[in-house]
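I hope you will forgive my troubling you with a question about protein structure. The full record is reproduced below for your convenience:

——
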Amino acid sequence: MNDETREQYARTRLLLGQDGLDRLRKARVAVFGVGGVGGYVVEALARSGVGALDLIDDDKVCLSNLNRQIIATRSTLGMYKVDAAAARVRDIDPEIVVRTYKTFYTPETADQFDFTQYSYVVDAIDTVTGKLSLVMQAKAAGVPIICSMGAGNKLDPSRFEVADLYETSVCPLARVMRAECRKRGVDHLKVVYSKEPPLAPIAEETTEETAPAGAPARPGTPKKRAPGSVAFVPSAAGLVLAGEVIRDLSGVSQK
């Protein structure tokens, strides 16, 4: 690190130490899904000095993202989310290596990624099939993975916690993931989830996302009512996810 970069991470070094910072600098983390949760993961990893980030998402920034996604501003409307996130990362620390993939991750697109290159995988995508594929790919490559469970239709950011999937309760997505992971012989999976029961969204005339012209269609995803979400819940989930990754990679644990 040059003097400027050392000064940038001076406060982080007080908690993680230089060895911890060096480990983060050598790490390469893949973040699948750069939306309300994943965008905050990317932000925290970049501000913590992770040396390389792979960002995977096929979506573009739209108006309905402005209420909760850190990458969404009026100036980024219509941009691919990975491009908006990459620009933020480079503005925070131009030395971080950023690779972007405008890809909707599914079992069919899994072969586009070499999981053995990653130090850690963050799952912040929405589909169960995609999540299961990420888990199996990471396990096969021997790479640690942490998965985000449901953050939609919730209002209490203080309820998020880190747990093994098989110790979760209440969360509907975690329930489905438990059953599917058990079928696949996955005996352990680190997740971030909330025990807050999801609220029922208030019905409106339309609940479809307001996408910009030319936004890519996502194959195999039927139209459904979008979940309600606010600025302070997916952000909290994303920061909890990032904190766990940073502690694991730096080798520094809470006492």
